[in-house]
Amino acid sequence: MIKAGVVGYGNLGRGVCLALEKAADIENVGIFTRRPTESIKPVTDVKVYSVSELEKFKGKIDVLILCGGSATDLPETTKNYLKDFNTVDSFDTHAKIPEYFDTLDKVAKESGKLCAISIGWDPGLFSIARMLFGAVLPDGNDYTFWGKGVSQGHSDALRRIKGVVNAIQYTVPKEAALEAVRNGENPSLSVRDKHLRECFVAVEAGADKERIESEIKNMPNYFADYDTVVNFVSEEEVRKMQQKLSHGGFVLRSGNTSEENAHLLEFSLKLDSNPEFTGSVLVAYARAIARLAAENKTGALTVFDIPLKYLSPKNDGELRKNLL
Amino acid sequence: MIKAGVVGYGNLGRGVCLALEKAADIENVGIFTRRPTESIKPVTDVKVYSVSELEKFKGKIDVLILCGGSATDLPETTKNYLKDFNTVDSFDTHAKIPEYFDTLDKVAKESGKLCAISIGWDPGLFSIARMLFGAVLPDGNDYTFWGKGVSQGHSDALRRIKGVVNAIQYTVPKEAALEAVRNGENPSLSVRDKHLRECFVAVEAGADKERIESEIKNMPNYFADYDTVVNFVSEEEVRKMQQKLSHGGFVLRSGNTSEENAHLLEFSLKLDSNPEFTGSVLVAYARAIARLAAENKTGALTVFDIPLKYLSPKNDGELRKNLL
């Protein structure tokens, strides 16, 4: 049995605990939290420890699954965990990945530990699709579409507007753009062409809706470059929408192998729960990290470095017989 | 520069030559054929040698791309090439893969060479999708659909019927089955539910079309278990259809991470030319084999064993920066 620990218990930590229930070869040793342990009510039957107790588990946990956020938590904490444990995380600040990788690779090599960074669906499965598609169809273009799903950053931006009580923003891929790609038109797509931004906004009684809608639609970086739809709804409706954490997206590549012959490759996800699915991907890569660490590998890895067989509980012979 | 040789020059060998043109880091050293060399008119600017001349290239070719058929050619010849060269092939007789793998793994380890077997899109990219999808969503079902595309085996079966002059058979995925999977219904699908068999048949003058249609539809193994549509057309129409080598298919997996939350993963291909695309996949794996052999790896590998980064001409840092 592989022994895994779960660090952090927000939506993602909850998703990881659920995924560990479905992994017969991995034991969930415990949740490690910075909050008061008694405040955590785990979704599965698992012990809850204070994160300060982690040092007692040195040598007793094969891999820590880190469920903190990319903005401030992971860049600060992963390098410390890596001194004593192998880790897997979902670091998703694209622009900072090279720096994050280099830092952790150095720490892990020094401590003799192994980590996988940027695991999930984007970065993660979508990165695999982009890389693989480009390698097998080099003369072409690829396109990534996200949604329909909630953008936390854009929802936050809406809530900062004066008069807005609560709000949620969905990123929606534009069907016409998807179809143009699928038709092999190799279109040049602006940000406006690819995604629509759909906002559901609850405002204070008597608020100036016209002013709020105009502020949203003209907000630089967030909305000005997009077609934006603003719907005014009740607070209760926004809260209800916030319960659903569905998401998804598409990676497409179209290209040619000769003048006459074109091809289309498409990978898509439709997820009821973004954190539960991301948690499930993290668990598969936790398996890989525990196994590769047992083979004395050290340093930092990404989805590009790990042979896929390490993700599966099936042995090599079974994989060749049943899945090849 | 990686030096590659192309063994065999049918549709697949032609596709490999085209793909090598698009690989700036790989040189096409030559086509090696059993036919008279002067009968080969390569699609790209490349030398043609007799396969008997291969031994002169020992140590001068990093990887041979084998473009023979799975039925008789590859099982006989790959093990001989492996004594002196690293190889990549598209062996696709699913039932015989474990045996083929074991034989070649042994030969390659003895000779200090490396090979990748069963490379293409199925087995190949579809195997990757099945394995990866199962690992990240263990509680679910997967479905592979093929087509619309020509089945050589079924076309051959049609041509063996008395009175048939020429014929072609398309395997067509049934839209209703695809939709049921996409709707998360986790359907149990019989072979009849999944694929339709569409036949285009040219017959001798005065042939008994009713008898031929009945023979087709009741042919065990090939057609009896399917809904089969028979169209009688002219020889010329069949020949025209035989020029187009388009194919494609779908791998889908639907499953749950909790009682409430289900997910759908889908990978699809739409190919104008089956052999050109397969050739392009072979070239990416030839790159991987040449590189892994340079790291002194030996034995047999499949798509499950090879870290994806080896397929790309980009270096690790570029991949992390631009594709993760």
Summarize the SSE layout with pairings.
Two copies of one chain form a homodimer.
Chain A (H helix, E strand, L loop, with lengths): L1 E6 L3 H11 L4 E8 L14 E3 L12 E4 L6 H9 L5 E2 L8 H15 L2 E3 L8 H12 L3 E7 L2 E2 L1 H8 L4 E10 L1 H8 L8 H4 E9 L5 H9 L9 E6 L2 H9 L3 E10 L5 E10 L2 H21 L4 E3 L14 H7 L2
Parallel strand pairs in A: 1-2, 1-4, 2-3, 4-5, 5-6, 6-14, 10-11
Antiparallel strand pairs in A: 7-12, 8-9, 9-10, 12-13
Helix pairs in contact in A: 1-10
CATH homology group of the largest domain in chain A: NAD(P)-binding Rossmann-like Domain
Radius of gyration of chain A: 22 Å
Distance between the termini of chain A: 26 Å
CATH fold group of the largest domain in chain A: Rossmann fold
CATH class designation of the largest domain in chain A:
Alpha Beta
Number of domains of chain A: 2
If you average the pLDDT of chain A, what whole number results?
Answer: 96
Biggest β-sheet strands, sense, barrel of chain A: 7 strands, parallel
Describe the structure.
Two copies of one chain form a homodimer. The first copy, chain A, has 324 residues and is an alpha/beta fold. The first copy, chain A, has two domains: 2-122 and 275-322, 3-Layer(aba) Sandwich (Rossmann fold); 140-256, Dihydrodipicolinate Reductase, domain 2 (2-Layer Sandwich). The first copy, chain A, is built from eleven helices and 14 strands. In chain A, strands 3-2-1-4-5-6-14 form a seven-stranded parallel beta sheet, with helices on both faces. In chain A, helix 8 links the parallel strand 10 and strand 11 (227-232). The radius of gyration of chain A is 22 Å and the shape is globular. Chains A and B meet through helix 1, helix 3, helix 4, strand 13 and helix 10 of A and helix 1, helix 3, helix 4, strand 13 and helix 10 of B.
